[in-house]
Amino acid sequence: MAAAIKYPVGAPNQDDSILTSKKYGYFQSEKELIDWVRKETGLKEGQRHPLTWIMEACDDIAYSVLDVDDAMKKGVISPDDVIAILSTDSRTKKHLAVKRAHDAFRKVVRANRRPEIARDIKIGYLRAFFVDALIEEASTAFVINGDAITNLSHKIPLMENNPLCDTLKEIAKQYAFGHPAVLKMETIGAEALDGLMTAFWDAIHDRKEDDFQKIDKKRRSAKNKFVFALISQNYLDNAISCESHNFVGSIRYRELRLLTDMLSGMTDTFTIKLWNEVKSLA
């Protein structure tokens, strides 16, 4: 549990100037659990478990590589384009992964395969070379900073300012996230989130005055009964279980947590599908 907390601070101690505290890592309703974890591990507010650095590096590696990989598979950018960009960027043009890719691409060309097969092989090579290189670099960074990580004084993520990781993220940002098809989906998703937040808030909030302190009481309108029934029972049980606490037991806190849990637990596809179903009731 301690290793899974990427940002080891609560909302009151969030600090944009510190990379490990720029977001809060737990809700107030989870403070009791966090206190128990820290009692067992000896960690304090703001201190990361040593393994968290590895978990964060894995996250950075996966997203930097797979976002570009996804863009190549969708035909937004070709593997040859990716290598051309890396070969002209001063940060990566001499990188071993780029050299390996050039050598592998020449072998693919000499094999005289069909273009679509050659393209898929090149994508596979890039994915393997990038992941291999970044794992090696993350491992080296972990060893170099081992003492500071162990004594809990280290502050900089292992992949921070990593040339290959940064360049791949920039490629994804420019060619994948900036593609019209992706921007269209973001627009649709933003509309869906906005609409669902309104719909779920109305449903969560729609209780009779004399039952208002009980979050699971019957809703007043037919539409809100339907929307409230869509909320996962697990999230509802969590909201109900907070009733006995002081601050987190307040009705407004529990309503907002229930809304947050429900929305953040959805996948992209489920969000859009659900919004189309809910808005059809208007």
Explain what the structure shows.
The protein has twelve helices and no strands. It has helices at residues 31-41, 50-73, 79-88, 96-110, 115-144, 146-150, 163-176, 180-205, 222-229, 233-241, 251-264, 268-279. The longest helix has 30 residues, at 115-144. The protein is flat, with a radius of gyration of 24 Å. The two termini are 43 Å apart. The mean pLDDT is 92.
List the helices and strands and how they pair.
Elements: H1 31-41, H2 50-73, H3 79-88, H4 96-110, H5 115-144, H6 146-150, H7 163-176, H8 180-205, H9 222-229, H10 233-241, H11 251-264, H12 268-279
Amino-to-carboxy terminus distance:
43 Å
Q: What level of helicity do the residues show?
A: 55-70%
What would you call the shape? flat
Mean pLDDT equals 92
Q: Using only CA atoms, what is the Rg?
A: 24 Å
Main sheet specs: none
Low-confidence stretches: none
Helix and strand sequence: HHHHHHHHHHHH
Task: Quickly count the helices.
Answer: 12
Structural class: mainly alpha
Report the sheet-strand fraction.
under 5%
Total beta strand runs: 0
